[in-house]
């Protein structure tokens, strides 16, 4: 029995297996071939924060695999306050075959995983967004052939999304450059984890976004203010003002460069309409790939 809390916990071979399975499931869906591998399985989704892509792709994915999903907003269950995390987890483990959780504090996931007798999947925490990163890697592979040898310029915050993306890119032999205002880069804990478990070559931080994208095969961005950081919004808007992914930035990158964004986009803040809707953007392929990646993940954890 395995949990999936961080991408750093799986091997490169396991990540490659998930990507291959995701591609196979995507092709099966396109050809309308049924894939009822989770018949009779029940998956609970417990979300403390809002979601479109993650919730819908998990619920649709479970249904397409022949299983059943149950959705709970965190406050309905009273996660962590109506009863202890341990009691919640031991109870849920008797009812369902897997738990998918979106939480404010990553420590909540660790607390649940410690007591769970069924797989626990991280559907986003303040620390990481590993399901997103599998879909991102799949999207890069589809559009550029491979992640190995590619340069991904993440222009934005050193946050949950960029940490998980950095791990995926590092494991698959690509290079991630983080371009952010001073003080918003990757922290020491991440550097320690990454250099010990992914690669000694830690992602470079480049403050000038024009320089960061000069050799980029992919430009990736995410919101400047993540869920849970709303009190910092005004300060972040000021600090990140020069880090918008717009036509000028795109013009500084190679012509073949693709644009990714995990979505939701704050249009006019971290990215402009012309870029997100433009010919180099693959953000909706990326969103779709959440479905295929998570179906592969569910099969891997539950079969
Ligand atoms: N990218 C992503 O996780 O989207 P949601 O927050 O809508 O699930
Ligand atoms: N970094 C963002 C990602 C949303 C999918 C957040 O945590 O809000």
Please tell me about this protein's structure.
The relative contact order is 0.16. The strands form two sheets. This protein has a five-stranded parallel beta sheet with strand order 7-6-5-8-9, with helices on one face. It has two domains: 3-129 and 289-302, 3-Layer(aba) Sandwich (Rossmann fold), CATH 3.40.50.1370; 132-286, Rossmann fold (3-Layer(aba) Sandwich), CATH 3.40.50.1370. It has helices spanning 12-30, 53-64, 74-77, 85-95, 106-113, 130-144, 160-171, 188-197, 209-212, 233-239, 247-251, 273-276, 283-302, and strands at residues 42-47, 68-73, 98-102, 120-122, 151-155, 175-179, 204-205, 218-221, 258-261. The N and C termini lie close together (10 Å). The protein is globular and about 55 Å long. Helix 1 (12-30) packs across helix 6, helix 2 (53-64) packs across helix 13 and helix 4 crosses helix 5. By secondary structure, it is of the alpha/beta class. The protein is built from 13 helices and nine strands. The mean pLDDT is 98. Strand 1, helix 2 and strand 2 (68-73) form a beta-alpha-beta unit. The site of norvaline (NVA) has 9 residues, from helix 7. Belongs to the aspartate/ornithine carbamoyltransferase superfamily. OTCase family. L-ornithine binds at residues 160, 222, 226-227. Pfam families: OTCace, OTCace_N.
